[in-house]
Automatic annotation (TrEMBL):
All copies of domain ABC transmembrane type-1, residue ranges: 72-269
Residue runs in coiled coils: none
Source organism of this protein record: Cuneatibacter caecimuris
PANTHER family per UniProt: ABC TRANSPORTER PERMEASE PROTEIN MG189-RELATED-RELATED, POLYGALACTURONAN_RHAMNOGALACTURONAN TRANSPORT SYSTEM PERMEASE PROTEIN YTCP
GO CC annotation, single: plasma membrane
CDD domains attached to this UniProt entry: TM_PBP2
Cellular localisation: Cell membrane
Biological processes per GO annotation: transmembrane transport
Membrane topology: Multi-pass membrane protein
Transmembrane residue ranges: 12-32, 76-95, 107-126, 138-159, 251-272
Family to which this protein belongs: Belongs to the binding-protein-dependent transport system permease family.
PROSITE patterns assigned: ABC_TM1
UniProt-recorded name of the protein: Putative aldouronate transport system permease protein
Pfam families: BPD_transp_1 (PF00528)
Length: 287
């Protein structure tokens, strides 16, 4: 009887989760459907639930736009460099704080927790970026996100759970702290690193407000700034000028640009999915 109740509960939970997943997929399905549908049918409002016709004219227009590629390049650079820098800094700091013999370890932990609970705000951050001389540079998009306190706490929890015997054996064999970190701690922490790395990469790729606040140079605007500018335009003529073709409606171009911007994350995610699931579960248990 108890087993039947448990099975019934799992069925209900499964139905609810499938329903939420379906709701999350609807916007993405609509964007993909409209972007590849015949622009003439999209303009007439005949595309509702299912795609009609097939056309890549919207993608061809996006490809011919230099602003799209420039923004795409900026987003790729900030995501790759920003994620690499963030993981290096956070992993080194987290590993050092996770070691019990570190002098002042408790104070470092309190500092991280304080940073989680309290944020300096937009104005202090803006002044800091201005006074450090990185305003209107690509580093204004990268350096402020180099350390995430919450991700650092997760990494500290993960490194603390590593067997101490491995480190002691390495020390007996003459390994330095740097060698222990790169040869033992990092390989054993791939699930946590992949999970935090994915979160960081997605945050960099989707970030918009930092570019709006700290970047004035149009050549340094990331892809998200291009997308918001495209979505806010009332017609393609305002965005593309003579490049815009009358038979291509604004909606087709907007959906094509949005799908193209999500494609890199969709390509990367399957490669880190196995680490992602394991890292989330371990972080939830150990945290």
């Amino acid at each position: 009887m108890i087993r039947k109740k448990l099975d019934f509960g799992r069925i209900i939970i499964g139905i609810v989760l499938i329903g939420f997943a379906f709701l999350c997929l609807i916007p993405f399905y609509y964007i993909l459907m409209v972007s590849f549908s015949d622009p003439a049918l999209v303009k007439e409002g005949e595309v509702i639930l299912f795609p009609k016709g097939f056309s890549t004219k919207a993608y061809e227009m996006i490809i011919r736009d230099q602003k799209f590629f420039r923004g795409f390049g900026v987003s790729v650079f900030r995501t790759v460099v920003g994620t690499a820098l963030a993981m290096i800094v956070q992993c080194m700091f987290a590993y050092a704080v996770s070691r019990k013999h570190l002098a002042g370890r408790k104070w470092f932990m309190k500092l991280v927790i304080f940073a989680v609970l309290f944020n300096g705000g937009i104005i202090p951050t803006y002044l800091t970026i201005c006074y450090t001389g990185i305003f209107d540079t690509i580093w204004a998009l990268i350096l402020p996100m180099a350390v995430n306190p919450w991700n650092t706490i997760i990494l500290i929890s993960f490194f603390s759970a590593l067997p101490e015997g491995l480190e002691e054996s390495a020390v007996i064999d003459g390994a330095s702290d740097v060698k222990i970190f790169f040869k033992i701690a990092m390989p054993l922490s791939k699930p946590a690193i992949a999970t935090i790395g994915l979160f960081t990469a997605v945050s960099h790729w989707n970030a918009l407000m930092d570019a709006v606040i700290y970047i004035n140079d149009s050549k340094l605007k990331p892809l998200q700034s291009y997308l918001i500018d495209l979505v806010m335009r009332s017609s393609t003529q305002e965005m593309f000028g003579s490049m815009a073709e009358q038979e291509i409606p604004t909606l087709s171009i907007q959906t094509a640009a949005i799908f193209a911007s999500t494609l890199p994350i969709l390509v990367v995610y399957p490669f880190v999915q196995k680490f992602f699931v394991k890292g989330v579960m371990i972080g939830a248990i150990k945290g």
